[in-house]
Amino acid sequence: ELVTAAPPAEMRSMAIGLAHSLSRYKLKFSPDKVDTMIVQAIGLLDDLDKELNTYAMRLKEWYGWHFPEMGKIVPDNLMYAKTIQKMGVRTKCKGLDLSDILAEEVEAELKDAAEISMGTEVSEEDVANILMLCEQVVSLSEYRAQLWDYLKNRMNAIAPNLSVMVGELVGARLIAHAGSLMNLAKQPASTVQILGAEKALFRALKAKHDTPKYGLIYHASLVGQAQPKNKGKISRVLAAKCALSIRVDALGESSTATIGIDSRLKVEDRLRQLEGRAPVEAADAAPAARPQPAVVMAADTDKGRGYSVAADSTLAPSGKKKKGAKDEADDDAAAAKKAKKAKKAAKEGEGEKKRKRDGEGGSGGKDGEKKKKKKDKDK
Question: pTM above the 0.85 mark?
């Protein structure tokens, strides 16, 4: 209606163009799309870990034919690859300075092992291919470290409270499993607790067994510090605090950790309580905690509405009544027991009398029969 001179076809194309531009603007600046970077980064981090383990295992197996003792002396994958890059064949190890890669005692042990190694000899072409694999391992390790720093910065910017509670890695896995930070904020604490153990949960429900106590949250440092018997309780407390932290991160406006620090201290106090240790004083535990506003009751300000001590009952609790009631109950039980015994004795006495009477009657009948037979015989 604003542009009257334009024909309907042009108005329709203008409306479509405006709708497309508005949709692109919303997609570009939507806060819900920011956590997509975390989901993709944690997925790539897992893939890099798998590839690094595969490459490092292949490198150790390949170079192990030439220098088998080196695998136990240098267990770290990155140090192993860098040492091979600098050393090449084991015969050059004696005259090299590896102090920038290895510790002094490890370097001495490696040089001693290189002189008495039982490995086979390799050609220059073999060494060239092994060195190319070493370059891949080193480059992937460096890229993984760079990606980890990026993920840590993104987590501290998007979900600072969750990062304080469970760490950046576990928090990123929770967000990736739920799909987004908003979807995770909609979940209750019980779902956050077993998130990642859905298969075990449904299997337990189907077989009517005990359901799992934790999922991805098991890898949090607080659950790892607990004793095996307390891991379930700590995971439940931690999941409840995490649910609050996630909602603050998703719906709050602060970009720093607010509720997460206090919640973590409460979980640590609960852990100490379960282990029987003394709780840390609040002043020592959280020196930088935010001061809470004092709560003033309405009855404190109004003297007329104050608590009246005179209205309290002054009757002292009688301990004798309780004791008398207990004695009375004991007497009733003893009387009932005595009556039961008397009834049983009377019943036994009646049975004894009946048996005696039956015995006398039986013996009298036999004597009568004998006398009758004797009379018949005399006749």
Answer: no
Q: Report the C-alpha gap between 317 and 374 in whole angstroms.
A: 88
H-type helices in 159-288, by residue range? 160-166, 168-178, 181-185, 189-193, 198-207, 221-225, 231-251, 259-274, 282-285
Contact at 8 Å (CB) between 248 and 223? no
Please measure the distance between the N-terminal and C-terminal CA atoms of the chain and give it in whole angstroms. Answer: 152
> Closest Cα to residue 165, out of 270, 254, 245, 282?
245
Are the beta carbons of 166 and 220 closer than 8 angstroms?
yes
Q: How far apart are CA 145 and CA 167, in angstroms?
A: 16
162 three-state secondary structure: helix
Q: DSSP string of 39-87? A: HHHHHHHHHHHHHHHHHHHHHHHHHTTT-TTHHHH---HHHHHHHHHHH
pLDDT in 10s for each residue of the chain, 379 residues:
556 667 788 888 888 988 888 877 766 555 545 788 899 999 999 999 999 999 999 999 999 999 999 999 999 999 999 999 999 888 888 888 888 898 999 999 999 999 988 889 999 999 999 999 999 999 999 999 999 999 999 999 899 999 999 999 999 999 999 999 999 999 999 999 999 999 999 999 999 999 999 999 999 999 999 999 999 999 999 999 999 999 999 888 778 888 999 999 999 999 999 988 876 664 455 445 454 444 444 445 555 445 555 555 555 544 444 445 455 556 677 777 788 888 888 878 777 777 766 665 555 555 555 555 666 666 5
Query: What's the CA gap between 92 and 108, in Å, rounded?
Result: 14
Both structure tokens of 76: 């770290």
Cβ neighbour number for residue 272 with a 10 Å cutoff: 13
